[in-house]
Design a protein that fits this description.
Organism: Streptomyces ziwulingensis
Strand order of the largest sheet: 1-2-3-4-5
Order of helices and strands: EEHEHEHE
Helix content: 25-40%
Pfam family, one: STAS_2
Number of helices: 3
Family: Belongs to the anti-sigma-factor antagonist family.
Structural class: alpha/beta
Protein name: Anti-sigma factor antagonist
Radius of gyration: 13 Å
């Protein structure tokens, strides 16, 4: 897993899972705490995430809200869009451009 960027926009790549969760949480929380306005997470380079990785995203979302910020997901890969829809988290998280639920392939 790799994360690069600053307190306004981060690009997350690789696998966001139980092995990388602690490092990702540290980077995301620092970005939330050190910035203002929207924090954009570009997920275009993300290969996969598991429940722990999704928990890291939700924790950053909650922390951003407490800091008066908004976490915005950008370029969410289709397989992860399906997971957000299945868990109904697409209704809670800010997703740039939204998710076209009707256009997602059925599993």
């Amino acid at each position: 897993m790799h994360i690069r960027g600053d307190h306004a926009e981060l690009v997350v790549g690789g696998r966001l899972d139980v092995r990388s969760a602690a490092d990702a949480r540290t980077v995301l929380h620092s970005a939330v705490d050190d910035g203002a306005g929207d924090l954009v997470l570009d997920l275009s380079e993300l290969d996969s995430w598991d429940a722990t990785g999704l928990g890291v995203i939700m924790g950053a979302h909650r922390r951003a809200g407490r800091c008066g910020r908004r976490l915005v997901l950008r370029d969410v890969p289709p397989q992860m869009q399906r997971l957000l829809v299945a868990t109904r988290l697409h209704r809670i998280l800010a997703i740039e451009g939204g998710i076209g639920v009707e256009t997602l392939p059925r599993v």
